[in-house]
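User: Predict the structure for this protein chain, please.
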Amino acid sequence: MNDLIENIVENLKERHPNVIFEIDNKNGLTIEPNNESGFKIYIQEEERENTIHFNSWHLHFENNKDGKNELLDYLIFGMSKSGRLKAYLRKGKEFKWTFETLNKEDGKWYPSGTTGLINLKLWQKTEIKYFQNDLIDLTEIKE
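Assistant: Here is the predicted structure, written as structure tokens:
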């Protein structure tokens, strides 16, 4: 196992003590939203790859330095107001999710990836719901 989750937990304890999280057998980390409009974050650490989940949306990363850094970028956006989860629903049931990031220069939201389930009920009206965390302030993050 690598030290990805250990490093995230150490950073949360030191820099963001108000964030509620739970470690799952040293290879999983759940970060809870702080309000109803937020979304749960789950990081799964495996030998070959690491996965980040925002509710049902997820993305896989290679278990190397570049993959870990990319996952951490998604984590930072997912914990802040600069990222949001766009959920597509039919009859109140979510079937597709897109993670979007805010471009501060033009004020527009851009998709970073979509995951979904097969939903062939095309005649049903699609609703969209947004989830957004406010766990960290990006202005406090230093490069």
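The beta strands are 21-24, 28-31, 41-45, 49-54, 57-62, 83-90, 93-103, 108-116, 126-131.
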